[in-house]
Specification:
Blueprint (H helix, E strand, L loop, with lengths): L1 H4 L11 H23 L12 E10 L14 E15 L3 E28 L6 E5 L8 E9 L2 E30 L5 E14 L11 E14 L7 E14 L10 E13 L1
Antiparallel strand pairs: 1-2, 1-10, 2-3, 3-4, 3-6, 5-6, 6-7, 7-8, 8-9, 9-10
């Protein structure tokens, strides 16, 4: 009779009560131990930080002045480039990164003075003109210069008009570091500095200067991170930099350019 109880009325096999108990126990064990582990998300990284990150940026300065080392004014700077960062050290307070920047497009703009000189006394002569890049701002207008030589009065009328010249260049800053503070927060203050070079198709910022110039910058700003995702971390960084360009006396003149540069960078990575 026990054997028949273990068989179906059609001759098929059926589970015994003991096997049913074992199966029920296994299902309960799976539900208690395995299912919660599958449903639970992996522990979240407490830091808004990346091991490797890449950035695309644009930088602009509308003017230059004698901020620290530069001597020329009214120089503009426009740059488009890419950056790479690698984490060096991190704790709750600071995230230190090596940072390098590549500038395939670096545009520098100089004021140009067009000067016309015409002798009007003692006789009127045809004017002659020439152009140059002034150290300071270009000052449009006209003036009359009068002087006496051996009792003869001479007078020259000098007229200045202004324009602007954009020079194309490229550069790279292979030496650089960035300090992100409060890496556990989405809004992180940033301090950074870089060193490198810039090569231009014409001499800048004056004719007697060179095509090859050294550059360095230091700046501060804020980096704002988006929410974390499986693709990594994305952020936007806005900063203000002191930017210097000079040829380190490798040309006959080395006036140097100091710019206050505003830079915005889109950053991504893991």
């Amino acid at each position: 009779m026990r054997v028949k109880a273990a068989m179906t009325h059609r001759g098929g096999a059926s589970l015994s009560p003991c096997m049913l108990k074992i199966l029920a126990f296994c299902l309960l064990l799976f539900k208690v131990c395995v299912v919660p582990g599958i449903a639970q998300a992996p522990p979240d990284n407490p830091y808004f930080s990346r091991v490797n990150s890449f950035g695309i940026f644009a930088a602009y300065s509308n003017d230059s002045s004698h901020m620290l080392l530069g001597d020329v004014g009214q120089r503009k700077l426009l740059e488009f480039g890419a950056s790479y960062s690698r984490r060096v050290f991190q704790n709750r307070v600071i995230d230190l990164q090596y940072d390098a920047e590549l500038l395939p497009v670096a545009l520098e703009s100089d004021p140009v003075t067009h000067q016309t000189d015409q002798r009007i006394l003692p006789v009127t002569l045809p004017p002659f003109s020439y152009t140059f890049e002034p150290y300071g701002p270009c000052l449009p207008g006209s003036t009359t210069l009068t002087y006496t030589v051996k009792g003869v009065v001479f007078a020259d009328k000098i007229t200045n008009t202004c324009s602007r010249r954009w020079t194309v260049g490229e550069g790279i800053s292979p030496v650089g570091f960035r300090w992100n503070f409060r890496p556990q927060r989405r809004w992180q203050p940033v301090i950074e500095g870089h060193g490198g070079y810039m090569y231009s198709t014409q001499t800048i910022p004056v004719e007697q200067a060179g095509n090859f110039n050294f550059t360095f910058d230091v700046g501060a700003g804020m980096e704002i991170f988006k929410s974390k995702s499986t693709r990594g971390l994305e952020s936007v960084r806005a900063e203000y930099r002191y930017h210097h360009i000079s040829n380190h006396n490798t040309a006959s003149q080395n006036p140097g350019i100091d710019n206050g540069v505003l830079q915005v960078t889109y950053v991504f990575g893991r």
